[in-house]
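Recall from the previous chapter that SMILES is a line notation for molecules. Here it describes zinc ion.
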Amino acid sequence: MRLRVLIPLLSVLLLPSGTATADPTPPVRDFGNGADRNEEAAGVAESTATTARELAPESTPELTWRPDHDRGYPRRTTLPIPPDNPADASIKLGLIPHHAIAAKLNQLQAVGDRVSAEVVGRSAGGRDMYLVTVTAPESAAETRRQERMRRQIESGDRIQTRKYKAPVFVNGNIHGNEWEGTDANLRVIEELATSTSPQIKDLLAHTRLYFNITANPDGRVLGQRPNGNGFDLNRDFVTASQPETRAMRQIMIDNQPVVMIDLHGYVNGTLVEPTTPPHGANYEYDLFIRNAYANALGIEQAILALGYTPEKDGTFPPQIPFRDSVEGWDDWPPIFTPQYAPFHGAVASHTIEFPMRVNGGDYNNQPVAELQRRSRINVDIASAAIRATYTFVQNNREKLVGDQIEMFRRGAAGEPSKQVPLGIVPGFGPEDVYNTTYPRAYAIPATGPAAGRLVDHLIANDVRVDKAVLPFRANGRTYPAGTYVVDMRQPKRGMANVMLEAGADISQRVDAMYDISGWSHALLWGASADPVTDRRFHAAAVPVKAASPTGSVPHGNGPLALKLDDAKAVRALNDLLGQGVAVTLAADGTAIVPASARAAARTVADRYGAPFTRAGQTSGTPLSSVRIAAAVSADELFTLRELGFAVTPVSTAVLNAGFDWSGADVLFVSSGLSYGALNPAAKAALDSFLAKGGVVTRGGTGANFNAAAGLLTATAVAGRGDANGVVTVSSTTGPVGAGSPAHAFVYSPRWFTALGPEVKVEQSYTAEGPLVSGHWRANPDGTGGPEAARGQAAVVSGRDERGAAVVLFGTEPMFRNHPKGLFPQVARALFWTASSAKVLTP
Ligand SMILES: [Zn+2]
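With both inputs in hand, we obtain:
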């Protein structure tokens, strides 16, 4: 399920109506372990990272699949069969292990002419992802004709919809320990492959059914929610940091499903979206809600028809959050698959949560027979949801395709965001109305690696980006030729806007949210994206397929400077340090590369897109590679490694077992390390490290560590635990603050008061706001709100009395690998703490 990390209080507000609480599995949402974000990954980072390393050597290339529109169907690919793995967690449940899927699909391709299977991606752990297409046979010419129609639809052009095979997408098992979507996919594919029913024959003549058999092979095998890198894939769609997410994104872009369902567990009774408010403001919601609600009602009937009862089976009737709950299961952030799919044309999309829990404590404690009984019910229910969905598409095909065309047409025409009429479906009230104002365009100045990253990300999400061939005027200024332009008169303007707009502060509209409420690629990714509101805007521009290269080295023979203002520059610097180049850090935070290393600089400029300039000075502190002992969450571990740092995961248990500190320069603490829980030997070893090493902390766990270890004099104050979003900050000229962007991201924000004389403020929440977009309310007693954070220190630095250089973060600079513009601030903290500590104690 969409594991709720915070706000357990909501569970009492959200009991679905009409379903009583009863054993064995009451119809209450499971909000997970209720852990604070800071503790969420405690102990996970280390084990998952080890797994990923073992499975995926760095040489494993990412599989980038694109569909072949010049081949007909069926395709009968012989899928490679992985080695048997008797430890696959699916086996205990009587479900198919990952290693048996390929053989099963090879067999299903052989039984007739309806099934085609392809490997379309590879997990973080190196396991194959399978996309199955079920449809009536097509000649190559017919496949090309279908693709032509798909493109016309995407342009918002009318087609002869009765000739178009409507695409339906079923995504299985995106959370690895919510297994049964995979088995339901295989069951339904087998039915479709072998059915002699005229109804199925008609279905396959008029639709293409796409099944992502398991979206998370690592998690399926390991019996865990995230993938092998420890990422929740169903939070990754705005960022696409993981290969599985990129594969799913490509499936949706290339096949353009009119309807999609995402199969999860476990909520009893079965949860079927659409959702409660707030609703994403960038959807064509009038088209969406009618179709989504209608399909949900059909799914509900199909599940009821299975005949499971609370008394007999412990299975409660389905619930539809839009109809049955007030709030708490929203479609605000497009981080979830069904909330991302509409931007690529889905006019109905659903999270389905089948009811019978088999993961967590139940997996370990329930008898095998009971677990297998529950899994059988889940497979039945998931299969019913799939059948109901394809029947819905079969019965409403031309209308659904027409609505998809209309969605893209409105975007291409640049029509204003439509106000959805109240009562468009029963229960659609003022609380459901969310709108946005689309600008005419966004201008993205081509000023460096961050702009290139943003442009490439937009293009990867199928947003059209142009590049100005002449200077143009907008917003009272002149933008030079070469500026990127996102013209909002385009079919996927919703996708563009949901990434580039600042977002909205929705704190006052709902009490609490399901997951994050704020994100913004324009404010958090280090590049500018200026909205242009003038409707007469015009720029001479041509579409681009990729951003221009950003790496450069100036001519000449002198030393070079590299501003550490982007993750790509950090990556380049770490590469140079790894090669043993004698880089120094100037007082202004710029890295200085000696003239003798120009060839190496050219290589990394090209490899990472890092822009070098002529160095105005050559003196500075010598830098060396920073080796990090990291008690961090999985996303932070991933990000630190992505930046090129050498990271050794640690935890309370690792330190208590005896840890060799000689290989560490800096300790990073944000998760899974408690100073008070260290045994005397571990404490003594850590204390002697602290006499010469640096420390960086984040969040509550980090602040507690700072206090318990007696580092900096500072009191950490916690904002409301579920507060999250984009905030405005102001930075000082300190070693960490200098050069930082004007926005940061927070989740369970913290600030520091009662600062000792040794403590320097690097960054503060601004005196106004500071929330720009997201959700941040005060606690019921009035504390912990954004007003309380105004003007307070968000990031501080200092040197404790032992000499350790310390930085404390109250913000979330590496959250889910998303706020890429904040990564260099983390790097500066690491370089500063490592080098300051060493200088003091040679
Ligand atoms: Zn799930």
